Structure to design on (594 residues):
């Protein structure tokens, strides 16, 4: 699960490649490297660390490849970082994906000296083996690809030519004027050209600076359309914020608005790209929501919305588990896949499973032109702009907006929504309420009292149970504090045993139908001397250790509000602990391995 890039043209390759892999660091940032060709040989520089830690400017030449790594095979060290070369250092290669039969292939490469423990290095030695036996580099490349089991996006450099291939991992080409670009996604390329080709499964290609060809593995020419991407590429900068995560939390009033803008008209919801007729949608008997991590949490909120508002039976599934259940699906099911990146391997595998069983699949994704957006029957983009912080924040709230709109839309079709105008007006008031909360809250102060805890418990009920899960995930991933999220009433069935005077318990308890019940759950915590941090719309009660007051909205919109304090709390705690907030250890923004 890595980011790869390549360039061939007349410009300085290393500076373009540095920019490409810097933009791809969301895919991994354990180590990185670049190899360029000049004066008849390839020079390579690589090391552990982030792109900003290494100066690549000494690499000369107008053609090169680059890589930023998230370790899957082999620890994080110099040897395992990419690019990898053949024994004679005539060819170098970068790879994203997992070669499942790497060990088997390594065994047949007798005589080759391996310098790394990676599966990727096997590929370059295999190509070298075919070249030594007399094949052209292109023939050797194709023969090698046919032997690989698993997933790959590959770029190989040999003299002034690049060889690319894709199966299971994304790879896009940018077609410039006398220059070609390659990257794991289109965003880093769009600074240079808007003419983008998305390679399809099983494609391989050869690139020259002024030409390219794309074939399938039978060496038959395949026609891949050049798409002109005109979407806004936001400047990837932190502006005046210390971290991307904080910037992205503060962007939410704007990104929430962008998620509903143009989708509400005459008190009705309309979507441009669903590609499923209203007649078919009216017959939907069940919705299956699928995602991973934060996107899965958004799915749980969606489950409440579809049952409550649209009165449609809904299941929420982890993408990674879905297909192993051999799920029972029929044409009355609507599968909705949620993903920020649109590249998550587990979610892609779940879509394949659902489609193979004939289900209609909708994707709600942020990544424009991403793999998921291109494989679903219909889709809804979040339009949240690039999310750089590894911890998802603004895309979570955008997912909630789209799910809310969809629940009102389906409910209106089914006749279960009586007053859509009221529901849609309420949604449109949310950005201003969040802005007000962001301007004036006590969360930094609260975080300074709890930042050195070892454990934390998050509790919520009903629509706010998924926010308890999300709060715990946010805290774990960026501050490395062990945290659990539970439905508040479940606490007494086990987790209550953990509570003592050192355990902060964050309770999301806005006023609503379960308010009295969650207050009883809080009493259970207080009786065991737990520290109670309550996030509530009613700031008047005494007896809590901390009260974080949030604005009051309808219960089905409350998660959009209540998630903001849990995001901020984890941000400030992680910052106080000196953690690398935007790039937490062991993680990557886009998880492209199963
Ligand atoms: C969120 O903060 C995480 N880093 C992670 O759980 C993420 O939500 C998950 O990997 C799913 O990614 P996706 O939305 O891009 O599919």
């Amino acid at each position: 699960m890595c980011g790869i890039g390549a360039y061939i043209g007349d410009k300085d390759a290393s500076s373009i490649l540095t920019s490409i892999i810097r933009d791809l660091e969301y895919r991994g940032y354990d180590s990185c490297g670049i190899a360029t060709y000049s004066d008849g040989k390839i020079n390579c520089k690589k090391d552990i660390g982030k792109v900003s830690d290494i100066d690549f400017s000494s690499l000369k030449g107008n053609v090169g490849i680059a890589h930023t790594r998230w370790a899957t095979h082999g620890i994080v060290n110099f040897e395992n970082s990419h690019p990898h070369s053949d024994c004679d250092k005539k060819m170098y290669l970068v790879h994203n994906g997992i070669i499942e039969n790497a060990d088997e292939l390594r065994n047949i490469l007798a005589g080759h000296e391996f310098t790394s423990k990676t599966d990727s290095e096997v590929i370059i030695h295999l190509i070298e083996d075919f070249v030594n036996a007399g094949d052209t580099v292109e023939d050797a490349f194709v023969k090698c690809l046919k032997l690989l089991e698993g997933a790959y996006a590959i770029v190989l450099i040999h003299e002034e030519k690049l060889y690319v291939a894709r199966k299971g991992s994304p790879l896009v080409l940018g077609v410039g004027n006398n220059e070609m670009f390659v990257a794991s996604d289109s965003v880093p390329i769009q600074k240079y050209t808007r003419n983008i080709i998305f390679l399809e499964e099983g494609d391989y290609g050869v690139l020259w600076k002024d030409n390219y060809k794309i074939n399938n593995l039978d060496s038959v020419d395949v026609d891949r359309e050049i798409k002109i991407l005109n979407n806004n590429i936001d400047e990837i900068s932190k502006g005046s914020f210390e971290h991307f995560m904080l910037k992205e939390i503060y962007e939410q009033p704007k990104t929430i608005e962008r998620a509903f803008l143009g989708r509400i008209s005459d008190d009705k919801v309309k979507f441009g790209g669903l590609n499923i007729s209203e007649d078919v949608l009216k017959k939907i008997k069940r919705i299956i929501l699928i995602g991973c991590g934060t996107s899965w949490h958004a799915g749980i909120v969606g489950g409440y919305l579809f049952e409550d508002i649209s009165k449609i039976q809904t299941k929420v599934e982890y993408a990674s588990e879905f297909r192993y259940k051999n799920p029972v699906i029929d044409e009355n099911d609507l599968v909705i896949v949620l993903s920020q990146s649109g590249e998550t391997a587990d979610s892609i595998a779940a879509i394949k499973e659902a489609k193979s069983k004939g289900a209609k699949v909708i994707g709600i994704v942020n990544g424009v032109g991403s793999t998921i957006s291109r494989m679903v029957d219909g889709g809804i983009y979040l339009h949240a702009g690039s999310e750089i912080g590894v911890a998802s924040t603004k895309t979570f709230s955008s997912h909630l907006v789209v799910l809310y709109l969809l629940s009102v839309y389906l409910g209106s079709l089914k006749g279960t929504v009586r007053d859509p105008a009221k529901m849609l007006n309420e949604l449109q008031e949310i950005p201003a309420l969040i802005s007000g909360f962001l301007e004036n809250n006590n969360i930094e102060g609260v975080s300074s009292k709890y930042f050195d805890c070892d454990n934390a418990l998050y509790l919520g009920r009903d629509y706010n149970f998924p926010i308890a899960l999300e709060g715990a995930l946010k805290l774990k991933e960026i501050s490395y504090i062990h945290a659990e999220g539970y439905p508040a009433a479940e606490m007494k069935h086990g987790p209550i045993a953990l509570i003592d005077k050192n355990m902060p318990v964050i309770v999301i308890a806005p006023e609503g139908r379960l308010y009295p019940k969650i207050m009883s759950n809080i009493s259970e915590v207080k009786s065991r001397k737990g520290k109670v941090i309550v996030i509530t719309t009613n700031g008047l009660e005494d007896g809590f250790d901390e009260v974080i007051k949030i604005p009051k909205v309808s219960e089905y919109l409350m998660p959009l509000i209540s998630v903001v304090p849990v995001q901020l709390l984890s941000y400030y705690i992680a910052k106080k602990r000196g953690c690398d907030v935007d790039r937490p250890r062991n993680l990557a923004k886009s998880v492209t391995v199963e």
Observations:
- The chain is about 35% helix and 25% strand.
